[in-house]
Design brief:
Layout: E1 3-14, E2 20-32, H1 44-54, E3 66-72, E4 75-79, H2 86-89, E5 98-103, E6 114-123, E7 128-129, E8 133-138, H3 143-154, E9 161-164, E10 204-209, H4 243-273, H5 280-290, H6 295-305
Parallel strand pairs: 6-10
Antiparallel strand pairs: 1-2, 3-4, 3-5, 6-7, 6-8, 9-10
Biased composition (Basic and acidic residues): 251-267
Pfam family, one: USP47_C
Domain Ubiquitin carboxyl-terminal hydrolase 47 C-terminal: 35-215
């Protein structure tokens, strides 16, 4: 059951000294859309079309402005690629999985050859960092082409666009931004997915009009290249597994997959044995069995819906 962001007319952006200013903008909250039935072989463009058609009355965007992604721990995560099927993007559905329908700013096609990046404008004259805009950009796009894209939306000539990739910790205080490496921009011929920028999904790129003079000029400021230890927080540990432990973990993973495959096969066998002709109240639940839901889950669903579970045994 996908959910969709709804919009509130207020959002915040950070100004000089780290103060937050309330501005008119869009801030996302989530509303449930409902149920849509697809198979693992349904192509993603068809999934988007089904969502747009079925939930148009709930504010779902048109198919060409839909981005589908996972949501975990209250954060938007993996973006589903359009050049594949629903099953290619969702290997397994587990309890609590959230799938989000996100409206894009412009029409886009997201494939394995794209990066999802956030572009944010820095205003030197006012020391104001504007809200970011997520864009799906080709890994092969050059810096020069990105500047042309920014020119189209802002009017700033490409020759006067400064570009820099910050660390996330540097954006917690806008006083860090003037000290970024604006004087050493990536070359125009560099590609977004290349070795110079080394960008990955979710990275932020800042840009500015280099004709604007910085309002905040610290005395003898040095470029910020590494976070101070105080701003890092606690270090996360990691475990190196022995060969024996790796073998055990792999065996457990295979056992879980085999168990899931067995449950799916049993559910499909049960579905095939249940007659649905003339029994519309049962057909819906038989379809859920065919889609791989376990018999116990389907029986529980019937109880919740107020349908006699014994009908599935007939």
């Amino acid at each position: 059951a996908p959910s969709s962001p709804s919009c509130s007319p207020w959002s915040r952006r950070r100004g000089a000294g780290g103060a937050e200013e309330e501005i008119e903008a869009k801030q996302t909250a989530f509303i449930p859309l409902g149920e849509v039935v697809v198979t693992k072989d349904t192509l993603m463009p068809d999934v988007k079309a089904a969502i747009a058609s079925q939930f148009a009355d709930k504010g779902a965007p048109p198919a060409n402005l839909i981005r589908i992604r996972d949501r975990a721990n209250k954060k938007l995560t993996t973006v589903y690629v359009d050049n594949g099927t629903f099953g290619d993007n969702v290997r397994r559905i587990v309890d609590g999985k959230e799938i989000v329908v996100q409206r894009t700013a412009v029409e886009e096609t997201f494939t394995d050859e794209h990066l999802l990046l956030e572009l944010r404008r820095w205003n030197p004259a006012s020391s104001l960092l504007e809200d970011g805009v997520e864009r799906a950009l080709s890994r092969d796009m050059t810096v020069a082409s990105l500047k042309d894209l920014i020119t189209e939306s802002t009017g700033v000539p490409a020759a006067h666009i400064g570009l820099v990739k910050p660390w996330s910790w540097q954006l917690k205080d806008v006083e860090n931004i003037p000290k970024l490496k604006w004087e050493s921009p990536p070359p125009d011929a560099a590609t977004l997915g290349g070795r110079v920028l080394r960008l990955k999904h979710g990275d932020i790129l800042l840009f500015k009009d280099t004709r604007e003079e910085e309002k905040w000029k610290p005395d003898d400021a040095e470029a910020v290249s590494a976070p101070p230890s105080a701003s890092r927080g606690g270090e996360a540990g990691f475990k190196i597994y022995t060969r024996e432990e790796i073998a055990v973990r792999e065996a457990e993973r295979k056992a879980k997959e085999e168990s899931a495959d067995k449950e799916r096969a049993e559910a499909e066998a049960v579905a095939a044995s249940i007659p649905t002709s003339g029994r519309p109240e049962v057909a819906k639940y038989v379809k859920l069995l065919k889609l791989g839901m376990s018999k116990e889950q389907v029986l529980q669903r019937m109880r919740v819906d107020g349908i006699d579970p014994s009908l599935l045994e007939a």
